[in-house]
Structures are given as structure tokens and as C-alpha cells.
Amino acid sequence: xxxxxxxxxxxxxxxxxxxxxxxxxxxxxxxxxxxxxxxxxxxxxxxxxxxxxxxxxxxxxxxxxxxxxxxxxxxxxxxxxxxxxxxxxxxxxxxxxxxxxxxxxxxxxxxxxxxxxxxxxxxxxxxxxxxxxxxxxxxxxxxxxxxxxxxxxxxxxxxxxxxxxxxxxxxxxxxxxxxxxxxxxxxxxxxxxxxxxxxxxxxxxxxxxxxxxxxxxxxxxxxxxxxxxxxxxxxxxxxxxxxxxxxxxxxxxx
Length: 254
Ligand SMILES: C[S@@+](CC[C@H](N)C(=O)[O-])C[C@H]1O[C@@H](n2cnc3c(N)ncnc32)[C@H](O)[C@@H]1O
What we know:
Blueprint: H1 9-26, H2 38-47, E1 55-59, H3 67-74, E2 79-84, H4 87-97, E3 103-107, E4 119-125, H5 128-131, H6 134-141, E5 144-155, H7 166-174, E6 194-202, E7 207-214
Parallel strand pairs: 1-2, 1-4, 2-3, 4-5
Antiparallel strand pairs: 5-7, 6-7
The structure holds S-adenosylmethionine.
């Protein structure tokens, strides 16, 4: 697929529409397809180095499969935010998180996310489409405080000597993503925004797991319009807030 200019909003919209259609179909059986990536998810969350009381954002949280791990890492005093554009995927995450008062789930495109506070860490777990969108990346990272830890995991092409297998990798990714290509270095648009970038290969070379810290981040978190807010506005990362509203709350619902 020929990639148009990186900042073409019409291109991003097309990708998002394709993704929405795919996850409408996948949502029901999505969780059953996750077995092989579970250890990667655990390593990604562990590598965020979360501490009790911190705030973490799960970007493209899908059905919420990382929420319990994140929640247990930040404890009752911490807060977990999840954002996903797919209503079908997010409905499942909401059902899962219903008993958890310190989880806030937001239905929104990543590039339109509004949070009431800057987060201390960000997880991108198998969010290829979001990682191909420069404006989504920049926007999401502005929702984090400078120095926030970021974990990025996903699928990539095998090394060149296994190139014939990459046709299979492409079609595997095609099933789930609006922009299934660019799997040689799928992290290349987020890595420049992060300091201390460290990447390892997973799944015999078909996956990657990387970490870094946000270079610039939030000078002040964008204030959401009153009707869209998940919780009373806390316009900047500090001072630390009290926990916001119950799990399943919709911010910027559409
Ligand atoms: C492969 S799933 C990963 C879900 C979850 N992170 C996990 O590890 O199970 C990718 C998710 O990204 C979401 N997504 C794709 N593009 C998005 C965008 N531009 N904004 C918000 N969510 C998006 C999809 O709806 C889908 O739920």
C-alpha cells in the first residue's frame, strides 16, 4: 500500500473507518485469539515500572485485557484510563471494568482523547494503526507528563532471511488493522518522541517490545469541554487528584 503524506487527515479517517469495521466483526471472539501474546502483555505492563498511586493510560485498550494488570500495578489509589474508538470492543472492556472505581474508559479516536490529568505511563499494546498515525501519537503523548514511561508492543516482519513468512505476517495484520503495512519498523513514528528507547524482539522475531520515556509530554493537559469530561477537571499533572468517577464512565462518548 502506498502511504500518503504522513499528516493527511483524510488518510487517517479512512484507516480509522476500516479499523472500526474490522473490530465490529472481531469484538466477540477477540479475547480468544490472545493466548500467544499474554506473556508479552505481562512484560509490557511490568516494564512500565508502575508504582502504587500512579495514573496510567491504555491506548487502544480494546476489550480491556490489560486493565486488570495495570490496575493491580497502580493499586486502589492509582487510576487506569483506557481509550478505544470501537464501541463493540469498549463495551466488553466496560463490562469487565464495571466493578472497578479507579478505571475510566473513554470511547474516542486516540487523536481526540481528552483526559482530566496527565498520566505517569502509557501502554500501546498491539495498536498498529495508532502507531502509524503521527497526529495520534503526538496527541496521546501530550496526555502524559514529561518523563512518563511508555511501553510499545506489536507485530512486525521477520528478519530478511525469513522474508517469505512476511506475506503471512502481512495478512495476519491485515485482518485487524486499517493500515496493515509498514511492518518492517512499525515503531519508527513513535520512537523519535521517546528518550532511552530500547527494543527487543519477541515471538521469534515476529513481534517487538519497546520502552522509552516521554520527552516533552503535557505542559498542561488539554481541558475537555465540560460535557465531555470523565471527571472534574484537573487541568495539570499536579497536584495529585482524588480518584475520579466510577468505571465504565464515558468521556467524549460518540
Ligand atoms: C489489536 S487491538 C488491541 C487491543 C488491546 N490493546 C489489547 O492488547 O488487547 C487494537 C485496538 O485499537 C483500537 N484502535 C484502532 N485505531 C484506533 C484509533 N485511531 N483510536 C482509538 N482506538 C483505535 C481498535 O478499536 C482495537 O480495539
